[in-house]
């Protein structure tokens, strides 16, 4: 497809979302009604209304045994009417456990379509972006923003050694992996003093500001006025949608659902467990939903656990913003602090850190029940905005950070913290620089993929916590209860 045909396809899909979705479900049922999983509910029928009436809305634990059977060698028709060609393994950092999801050729066809579509949208707004690398890098793409931050942080630490390698044309001796050495040696080629000098001039500046959710403030520091673009929203379960306004602020991103990737239903979040799922075109503006996905790959009425809010419509197709993960909360009493609460609190506290010349490079948190009353613990990795590498912590600033975060939490937290004393003072533990890199290495060693990895917002892994605790250099507590 060329640029115009892809954008035309988006107009057609979004204008006919209802019919596209009906056709999608019919196609999936025609192919998979006789799978072992669906046969229990449909008895071989491909009737769409029977599907909605009889097939239950499920979570991963409900379908895990079927996934594992096929992954262990049983026929694809246990779950899918089309051959399963491979399995996708989730990172395990969002919910704490890795999950496996089936894939087949339909997935890759849809993935190519989404990638071409998002590239066409981006090319429409930014000229030359499709040209890739010229004299200078035109764009950098990563699946998760934190991956780019990790790469920049690594470059900050090792740029001098990189320059030496380029200047000499030789790889550092401590890099012992033969495959890595061979690949890098081919890129290095012969000594290149001119390139080494150029990199040295850029990286040797006193501050890297202007050279390059919680990642946004850090990326804005490095990127200066360069656009930060979130092109699409994809999950392990489905390719969901694209951002038709790529130059909007990262905080304002909404994704237009692409109705030919899966069959979508939505579970209303605010209406209790007795709520009924609704079709894609029947969602309401401003309401919160958990997507329920049926696809060609073996998932049927699968509840994703992502909380999305309807922000508008593109033609007849709704647009959503990602709010939080459904199951990512911390609690020490009866309060529930969500992912959105945590991110909002961290965003508020960045202004306090900036006034002290500090940047928050990464964080995670846990509920600490080893004290009475229990309290929240936040692990922070900080970096000075100037480039001397020395983090100077002012007790008043850090205590204020604790208080500002507590003020940002919901009324139930504040009430039980202030009035009843059933929640203890919030604690911030500052860690050595490089700690989150070590945490990433641990999760990768346990099977997570580097390109998928993202720092868990709330951590419950004993081994991961041990890595954090071993690198704590300072602790601070809020010194007053938050207002009501």
TrEMBL record:
Domain of life: Eukaryota
Ranges where the GH3 middle domain occurs: 255-325
Protein name: Uncharacterized protein
Domain GH3 C-terminal: 340-462
Family per record: Belongs to the IAA-amido conjugating enzyme family.
Signal peptide segment: none
An annotated GO cellular component: cytoplasm
Species name: Brassica oleracea var. oleracea
Parts forming coiled coils: 3-30
InterPro entries named among the record's database cross-references: GH3 (IPR004993), GH3_C (IPR055378), GH3_M (IPR055377)
Single GO term (MF): acid-amino acid ligase activity
Keyword terms: Coiled coil, Ligase
Pfam family, any one: GH3_M
């Amino acid at each position: 497809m060329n640029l115009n045909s892809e954008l035309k396809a988006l107009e057609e899909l979004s204008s006919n979302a209802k019919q596209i979705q009906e056709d999608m479900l019919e196609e999936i049922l025609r192919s998979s009604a006789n799978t072992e999983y669906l046969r229990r509910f449909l008895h071989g029928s491909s009737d769409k209304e029977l599907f909605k009436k009889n097939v239950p809305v499920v979570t991963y634990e409900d379908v895990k045994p079927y996934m594992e059977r096929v992954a262990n060698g049983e026929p694809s028709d246990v779950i899918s009417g089309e051959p399963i060609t491979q399995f996708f393994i989730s990172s395990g950092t969002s919910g704490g456990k890795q999950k496996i999801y089936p894939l087949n050729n339909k997935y890759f066809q849809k993935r190519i379509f989404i990638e071409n579509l998002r590239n066409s949208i981006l090319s429409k707004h930014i000229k030359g972006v499709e040209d890739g690398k010229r004299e200078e890098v035109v764009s950098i793409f990563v699946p998760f923003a934190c991956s780019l931050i990790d790469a920049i942080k690594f470059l900050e630490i090792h740029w001098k050694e990189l320059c030496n390698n380029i200047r000499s044309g030789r790889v550092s001796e401590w890099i012992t992996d033969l495959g890595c050495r061979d690949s890098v040696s081919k890129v290095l080629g012969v000594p290149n003093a001119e390139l080494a000098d150029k990199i040295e001039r850029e990286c040797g500046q006193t501050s890297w500001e202007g050279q390059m959710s919680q990642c946004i403030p850090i990326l804005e520091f490095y990127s200066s006025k360069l656009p930060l673009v979130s092109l699409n929203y994809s999950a392990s379960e489905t390719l969901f949608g694209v951002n038709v306004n790529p130059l909007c602020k990262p905080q304002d991103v909404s994704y237009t659902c692409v109705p030919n990737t899966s069959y979508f239903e939505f579970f209303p979040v605010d209406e209790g467990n007795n709520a009924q799922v609704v079709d894609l075109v029947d969602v309401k503006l401003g309401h919160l939903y958990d997507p329920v996905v049926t696809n060609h790959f073996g998932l049927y009425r699968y509840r994703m656990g992502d909380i999305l809010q309807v922000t508008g419509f593109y033609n007849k197709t709704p647009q959503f913003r990602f709010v939080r993960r459904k199951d990512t909360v911390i609690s020490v009493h009866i309060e529930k602090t969500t992912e959105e609460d945590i991110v909002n609190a961290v965003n508020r506290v960045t202004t306090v850190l900036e006034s002290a010349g500090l940047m928050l490079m990464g964080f995670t948190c846990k509920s600490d029940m080893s004290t009475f009353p229990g309290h929240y613990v936040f692990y922070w990795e900080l970096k000075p905005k100037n480039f001397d590498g020395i983090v100077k912590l002012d007790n008043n600033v850090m205590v204020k950070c604790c208080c500002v975060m507590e003020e940002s939490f919901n009324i139930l937290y504040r009430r039980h913290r202030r009035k009843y004393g059933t929640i203890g003072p919030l604690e911030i533990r500052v860690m050595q620089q490089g700690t989150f890199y070590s945490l990433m290495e641990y999760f990768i060693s346990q099977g997570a993929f580097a390109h998928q990895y993202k720092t868990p917002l709330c951590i419950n892994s004993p081994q991961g916590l041990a890595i954090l605790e071993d690198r704590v250099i300072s602790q601070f507590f809020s010194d007053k209860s938050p207002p009501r």
